[in-house]
Amino acid sequence: MEVTNRYITIKTSIDGAPKESDFEIKAAALPLKVELGTNTIIVKNLYVSIDPYQVNRIKSFSSSQTAINFAAGVTPGTAFDAYGVGKVVVSGNPEFEEGDLVVGLITWGDYTVVEPGAMLRKCDSMALPLSYQVGILGLSGLTAYAGLFDICRPKKGEKIFVSAASGSIGNLVGQYAKLFGCYVVGSTGSNEKVALLKEKLGFDEAFNYKEETDLKATLKRYFPNGIDIYFDNVGAEMQEAAVANMKTFGRVVVCGIISEYTDAEKRAAPDMLDIVYKRIKIQGFLAADHMSVYQDFLQKTCDYLHAGHIQVLEDISSGVESIPSAFVGLFRGDNIGKKIVQIAEE
Ligand SMILES: NC(=O)c1ccc[n+]([C@@H]2O[C@H](COP(=O)([O-])OP(=O)(O)OC[C@H]3O[C@@H](n4cnc5c(N)ncnc54)[C@H](OP(=O)(O)O)[C@@H]3O)[C@@H](O)[C@H]2O)c1
Questions:
Q1: DSSP state of 164
Q2: What is d(CA 303, CA 81) in angstroms, rounded to the nearest whole number?
Q3: Quick one: pLDDT at residue 346?
Q4: CB contact set of 231 (below 8 Å; sequence gap of 6+)
Q5: Which residues of the chain have pLDDT under 70?
Q6: CA distances from 221 to 15, 206, 227 (A)
Q7: What are the pLDDT digits (tens) for 265-316?
Q8: pTM
Q9: Which residues pair with 42 in a beta bridge?
Q10: In a 3-state reduction of DSSP, which class is residue 245?
Q11: What is the structure's pLDDT at 124?
């Protein structure tokens, strides 16, 4: 049997803010069979993750492209790999059977041909919706958990500021920190999102950064005695304002700098005297380096989910054709929570 495999690609490298017209859908015939002995499998993609880091993969150059395998540049015309969940439809690998659910690197397309050695494993949904594997129980959840607990090492009662707080990672950082016993303030890009953070997710405070004219003064208002931990998802002027408001021995964890990804002119220039004299620690990290906390993360998050202590924010679109707008929307703040595209029915 043969199917048509549609997949998303870029027409040329994109430096700057991506537009839907930069992407195209290609289609190719895919025979649903594998050669015996190759250990190849074919996966029907079900849910794929839509992540900001992909924008650095489509640039003509980004230092991130050589830092780690999964961030390698995407060649125009070829398929994107992305985190996601799928179902095995053909297996030439004794470790997988037809019908197995799998999670790991698949493609922004209908099907993925998975060669041996790829980052893919069998998936146990743990009696929770399968889409959770892409967000809260996937790399987004691990990133929030590892960045907060493995790097910042909060103490109960500490005061935490998180940016892009209604996004996939930010909302979880805030919820984990509240459950742990910290005071949490989030910044986000609309008044609707501010209300959600305070009323549904239990943040102590939240503000719309687009309505603020002096971010240093804004943070002084929310943290009159200073910030213990800043979980940075956006970089640039928000990072500068947070550093200016850190307490002595404060910690800044740089998870991402989305406001700088699409604007080569934008660069955080925090006051280095503050960093020296307030003995502030700034640390970047990649979730993939923190697999040592994976079991702890999974157990605690599943317990919170089953007990109803954590809210799941998902923003799900449908169909391969919706991937470009879903992706471009990340940089406009269209999403609330984890952006996922459902490719096919389970
Ligand atoms: N270190 C790691 O291992 C790792 C892993 C995954 C992701 N990340 C990083 O973590 C950050 C959050 O990723 P995510 O997957 O959770 O995405 P997300 O927050 O779900 O989506 C992106 C959000 O960023 C905000 N945003 C977009 N452009 C902005 C700008 N110019 N200034 C301020 N905010 C802007 C928007 O919300 P608003 O309404 O708030 O504007 C948007 O909804 C990104 O920087 C990403 O690269 C790091």
A1: S
A2: 31
A3: 87
A4: 147, 148, 152, 160, 161, 162, 163, 170, 173, 253, 255
A5: none
A6: 37, 12, 11
A7: 999 999 999 999 999 999 999 999 999 999 999 999 999 999 999 999 999 9
A8: 0.98
A9: 90, 113
A10: coil
A11: 92
pLDDT tens for each residue of 36-65 = 889 999 999 999 999 999 999 999 999 999
Maximum alpha-carbon separation in the chain: 68
DSSP bridge partners of 29: 4
- Which domains are present in the chain? 2-136+312-342 (3.90.180.10), 139-288 (3.40.50.720)
Q: Can you tell me the distance from the alpha carbon of 115 to that of 91, in angstroms, rounded to the nearest whole number?
A: 11
User: What pLDDT, on a 0 to 100 scale, did the predictor assign at position 249?
Assistant: 98
Q: Which token pair is 128?
A: 């929770």
pLDDT of 37: 87
Q: Which DSSP string corresponds to 44-73?
A: EEEEEE--TTHHHHSSS--GGGGTSGGGPP
Residue nearest to atom 44 of ligand 1 (CA): 256
Q: Which atom of ligand 1 is nearest to the CA of 188?
A: 40
Write down the pLDDT at residue 59: 97
Mutate to test the pocket of ligand 1, among 330, 334, 336, 340 (most ligand atoms within 8 A of CB): 330
Count CB neighbours of 239 within 10 A: 25
Q: What is the pLDDT of residue 295?
A: 97
Say which DSSP state 79 is in: P
Closest by CA to 206, choosing from 175, 252, 248, 245, is: 175
Residues within 6 Å of ligand 1 by CB: 51-53, 140, 143, 164, 166-170, 188-190, 193, 233-234, 255-259, 285-287, 330-331, 333, 335, 339
Output the pLDDT for position 223: 98
Structure tokens at 53: 């880091």
Locus of tokens 């493995």: 150
Phi and psi at 54, nearest 5°, equal -60, -25
CA–CA separation, 275 and 281 (whole Å): 7
